[in-house]
Specification:
Elements: H1 2-24, E1 59-64, H2 65-69, H3 76-80, E2 86-88, E3 104-106, E4 117-121, E5 124-125, E6 144-151, E7 165-171, H4 174-177, E8 179-187, E9 192-202, E10 205-216, E11 236-248, E12 253-267, E13 274-288, E14 293-310, E15 317-323, E16 326-336, E17 343-363, E18 369-392, E19 395-416, E20 422-427, E21 431-446, E22 450-461, H5 465-469, E23 472-474, E24 477-480, E25 488-499, E26 505-517, E27 520-526, E28 530-535, E29 538-552, E30 555-569, E31 591-599, E32 606-614, E33 617-618, E34 626-627, E35 630-642, E36 645-652, E37 660-664, E38 667-670, E39 675-683
Parallel strand pairs: 4-7, 24-28
Antiparallel strand pairs: 1-6, 2-3, 4-5, 6-7, 8-9, 8-39, 9-10, 10-11, 11-12, 12-13, 13-14, 14-15, 14-16, 15-17, 16-17, 17-18, 18-19, 19-20, 19-21, 21-22, 22-25, 23-24, 25-26, 26-29, 27-28, 29-30, 30-31, 31-32, 32-35, 33-34, 35-36, 36-39, 37-38
Length: 684
């Protein structure tokens, strides 16, 4: 597997090398319609194609660069939490959770650790090819220009992953990261955060190189009364590096090349319970902004994950998930032909392939090998889509359709004993099929005061290789994989109003009703000991989303609230003690709210405070293990000291709220306690 991944990376790098010389060259010859001439102004922004009028028909929130940076923790998942409805599987951030639990979802459509929201970085899906989690520790907020969050399903590019919505992250460009910038901070536990970016113009293009290193001894996630000699702090040590180049090929076409490398190591709860997540991602993108606008993208991802499970009774290793290599390959092509000012037509195709396998060793508490396991497979999705926006006066209508050809193949599960003798060797049948989805909506402008909008949509998500072939243990409960899982399908609709009653005042209200059919859930088979991933009838989420913003000179106030009545439906006859029909899905709060007050007293200054509330959640499908609601206060301050140098002060969970992130039969984990950071930021 490794040679194949290396050859793919090498091929992509070679392609970039072949294209780069023409990208950075400027021809002084005759203007032949596409040649860049000396002195000719070239606009290179490093972004994709502009938004279409259809955007306004859906529930969209945009976080700007300062919103992403000015958080108490400095983590991207913390910034996204300012949008009510965003959540990970657990409340822990990417320093104190198992990476495989970092699934992202919206609108309470979770229930397991996989991502039901599509997270894109410069158009590239960021989900792990094997597990489906998002490597949040590798996505540094200081490298980003914005995040656009669309709640609700979609049928555009890579729509097969946008079951609960789409989170589109856009990298910052040269105008934001020119020269040398970065920051160094230390917190009250002696942990450090270091980051730096170097930007350099190359002809009419530019190149940006950045790095970040987070290191710390962590905090005790375990309550005092549950600690033992083997209890460990949530240590973490992660770094990431990114090189991004953007250059014009002509007056209307630009090339974007990106390489991201990361390595994340953590320890959770017990000494020796170590996990790692590594990745090498590369992408090449061509964006044309002429009359025939287009977006051509190709990417490759090489990822790996390891994890050691420690017995919570004997405190020795019982499972060594020593190697989980996976590869993601994909791309898209979108064309926007000129069809008149009233229409914006999008025609496109995309493809994603995920290939991976696990190697793990089950160990007796005596230290002897119980068995070795090897499992994996391949999934792929080819999508064809078309969408048209039609604007007539104050009314914009949009409609889009998508057809997906999915394939689940080469699935296997093999075990051997300590001597290498085969115990099981199962080969699963290949499966494939076509699935259709659509979205449509309308938005009506009422002068400059209000917009009325409505939308309906369907969506698709394939089960991950993790859900299909890898079981896991969170003592004392074992959760089995299920190779027979079928794709999830979303059906949903929503209606909303956006108001601008006065200058600097924004209000938005959306009511929605979304249903995920064949939802993959961790279903209890034997109470307190055994679960299995199964397709249940559905998860239905109904609710409202409200957001408000006020900008008055140097002061701004932004807030959001989401109420979701989510219910799991199951028609399978089950014993009374394992029946969950009508229950709220696991890890799903009813209420989520947050607000940020920011003050900019002078140029370069920023003072802000954020309050967040997350309602009660249940650990399990049976609603027996609950996690109480939590309210946290964070703060951020940036104070200029001299030209290009600032003092930075951050505070997480300043009231030291006990945030329960896991409750497995009374075995508790906590989230981050009160933490204060201080350091220096520079932009030279």
């Amino acid at each position: 597997m490794m040679p194949r991944r290396q050859s793919i990376l090498a091929a992509l790098a070679a392609s970039a090398a072949l294209v780069a010389p023409s990208a950075f060259a400027q021809d002084a010859g005759d203007d032949d319609g596409g040649t860049v001439r000396f002195g000719e102004p070239i606009f290179v922004d490093g972004k994709g194609l502009p938004e279409t009028p259809a955007t306004e028909a859906y529930d969209v929130t945009v976080l700007e660069r300062e919103d992403l940076i000015a958080t108490g923790s400095g983590r991207i998942e913390d910034a996204l939490s300012n949008i009510a409805g965003f959540q990970q599987f657990r409340r822990s951030d990417s320093r104190s959770s198992n990476p495989s639990a970092q699934g992202a979802t919206l609108r309470a459509l979770g229930g397991n650790a996989s991502s039901r929201a599509l997270v894109l970085l410069d158009g590239v899906p960021m989900s792990d090819p094997f597990f489906g989690y998002i490597p949040f520790s590798a996505i540094a907020p200081e490298r980003l220009a914005s995040a656009r969050v669309t709640r609700g399903g979609g049928s555009g590019p890579f729509g097969a992953g946008a079951l609960a919505g789409t989170i589109e992250l856009t990298s910052a460009g040269y105008e934001q990261l020119a020269g040398v910038s970065g920051q160094g901070l230390v917190n009250d536990r002696g942990e450090t955060e270091l980051s730096a970016t170097l930007g350099q113009k190359l002809g009419a293009g530019y190149v940006l190189a950045s790095g970040r290193w987070d290191h710390g001894k962590g905090f005790y996630t375990t309550p005092v009364d549950q600690r033992v000699d083997a209890t460990a702090r949530a240590r973490y040590d992660s770094w990431s590096g990114q090189v991004r180049g953007v250059a014009p090929l002509s007056a209307t076409v630009e090339m974007q090349a990106n390489v991201l490398i990361f390595d994340d190591n953590r320890t959770l709860r017990f000494e020796g319970a170590d996990s790692s997540s590594k990745g090498q991602d590369a992408s090449l993108r061509f964006v044309g902004r002429g009359d025939w606008a287009f977006d051509l993208l190709g990417y490759v991802q090489a990822r790996n994950f390891t994890n050691v499970v420690i017995s919570s009774t004997r405190f020795v290793p019982v499972l060594d998930q020593r190697n989980t290599p996976s590869t993601g390959i994909g791309g898209k092509f979108e064309l926007r032909p000129p069809v008149g000012d009233a229409h914006t037509l999008r025609l496109g195709a995309d493809w994603r392939m995920s290939d991976g396998e696990l190697y793990e060793t089950a160990i007796f508490t005596s230290g002897a090998i119980n068995e070795r396991r090897n499992a994996g497979g391949t999934t792929s999705d080819l999508g064809l889509y078309v969408e048209d926006d039609y604007t007539v006066g104050a009314l914009t209508l949009t409609a889009g359709a998508r057809a997906d050809r999915y394939v689940i193949r080469d699935g296997f599960y093999k075990t051997t004993d300590a001597a290498g003798n085969t115990k099981q060797d199962i080969r699963y049948d290949d499966r494939s099929g076509w699935k259709g989805s659509f979205r449509g909506g309308a938005v009506f402008d009422i002068g400059d005061i209000a917009q009325l909008r409505a939308a309906a949509y369907t969506g698709l998500r394939l089960p991950t290789l993790n859900e299909l072939y890898r079981g896991f243990v969170v003592f004392p409960v074992t959760t089995q994989a299920n190779a027979d899982l079928v794709p999830e399908k979303l059906e949903g609709y929503e209606a909303g109003i956006d108001l601008t009653p006065g200058e600097g005042v924004r209000l938005s209200l959306t009511a929605f009703d979304n249903k995920v059919k064949n939802a993959v859930a961790n279903v209890t088979i034997v109470k307190d000991s055994l679960r299995q991933r199964q397709n249940i009838d559905s998860i239905r989420a109904k609710g409202i989303e409200f957001s408000a913003g006020i900008d008055r000179g140097i002061v701004s106030l932004n807030g959001s609230l989401a109420y979701t009545d989510a219910t799991a439906h199951d028609s399978v006859p089950r014993p009374d003690d394992t029946s969950f029909d009508g229950n709220r899905p696991a890890q799903t709060p009813k209420w989520v709210a947050g607000a940020t007050l920011a003050v900019k007293p002078a140029d370069g200054w920023l003072l802000s405070t954020t309050v967040r509330y997350v309602g009660k959640q249940f650990e399990d499908d049976l609603e027996e293990n609950s996690m109480p609601s939590a309210t946290t206060f964070d703060a951020y301050a940036r104070v200029p000291l001299t030209q290009g140098i600032s003092f930075v002060l951050r505070g997480e969970n300043l009231t030291d709220e006990e945030i329960v992130t896991r409750n497995q039969g009374g075995s508790i984990d906590f989230g981050a306690p009160r933490t204060v950071w201080a350091g220096i930021g520079f932009n030279l």
